[in-house]
Amino acid sequence: MKNWRFWLGLIISGVFIWIALRQIKDWHLFFASFKEIHYWVILPALIGYFSILVFRAWRWHYILKSHLEIKFSSSLIALIICYMANNILPFRAGEVIRAIVLSRREKKAFSPVFATVVIERIFDSLIILVFLAVLLFHLTIPSDYKNIAIALKKGGIIALAGAVILIIFLYFLYYARDWVIGISDRFFSVFGKKIHNFVIQELDKFSQGLIILGNPFRLLVVVGFSFLVWGVNLIPIYYIGVGFGTQISIIGLLLLLFLGAFSAAIPAAPGFWGTFHYITALGINFLGALPQEKALPFAIVLHAFYYFPVLIVGLILAWKEGYSLTELEREAEREKTQL
């Protein structure tokens, strides 16, 4: 584990937790909010959350099938272990770990499998940007929050530019593979034969995972899967709101979904502690969906649904697959240094 990265994440999370707790004016009302929850919502919220994982695995499996014969069970197990690892290990190491788990389970090369993870995350980013556009078009933003609207627009433009640049590079790598590898061959030749050969071999393997980019129909199917994945993400948010006695509008749900994704992008402690709680509570207060005393409890309960179920199931699956957290982290660090 990179100690400075770990401590930096803890500090960032600590700051956000401190800011969130400072918003509490009445601690009695804060704790009373947890007693007033309608706990019957646990079941539909859990069903909704695990449906997200199934649909995500289904989408990833579809991308993988463009060039690999993979069992769906392997895709699902690797994805759940990935989410578990993201909740424990720093800087989203789980994204590398799921490629490791699947490639070992199915005896496939790591690089083309990891390429599909990159493609999947690009689709996630694009869908979130679509939701941001819908929000900016439909959400009425009071004058006191105009600076937030400007920040959202600028952040959306920067994220879109980054996604477009990455997409262009991936398409170049797929359609002009020999040209890209030729340039890389000349560039990395100055770093010695060992590094040069490794980079060229891995770049060639990585490009094999981009086959889906040459199939417009499969790309459209993945877009449909992506909207489904993120649409199902609204279910736990909705039912946790019902548990607190409110029905959040579809625009409000999209805002909370976007804010949750934004908080996950901040390099905080594993599991997005602090950042998720503060930013989600801020969103609830902005919407006026709940009294201020219930905004942070709402964020805490929602985060618990995102965090603990997949953590428990992921640890069980990792144990059954014969992995330890130390081994997974070591493998992730080794693969990241080689990417």
Word description of this protein:
- The protein is mainly alpha-helical and 339 residues long.
- It has one domain.
- It contains 15 helices and no strands.
- Helix 6 (110-138) runs antiparallel to helix 7 and helix 6 packs across helix 12 (250-265).
- It is globular, with a radius of gyration of 21 Å.
- The two termini are 17 Å apart.
Summarize the structure.
78% of the residues lie in helices and 0% in strands. With 339 residues, the protein is mostly helical. It has one domain.
Number of strands: 0
Query: What is the domain total for the residues?
Result: 1
Taken as a percent bin, the fraction of beta residues is under 5%
Mass-distribution shape: globular
Number of helical stretches of at least 4 residues: 15
Give a short account of the largest sheet. none
What structural class do helix, strand and pairing data support?
Answer: mainly alpha
List the helices and strands in order.
Answer: HHHHHHHHHHHHHHH
Fraction of residues in H or I helices: over 70%
Rg result: 21 Å
Q: Mean pLDDT, rounded to whole units? A: 86
Poorly predicted segments: none
Distance between the termini: 17 Å
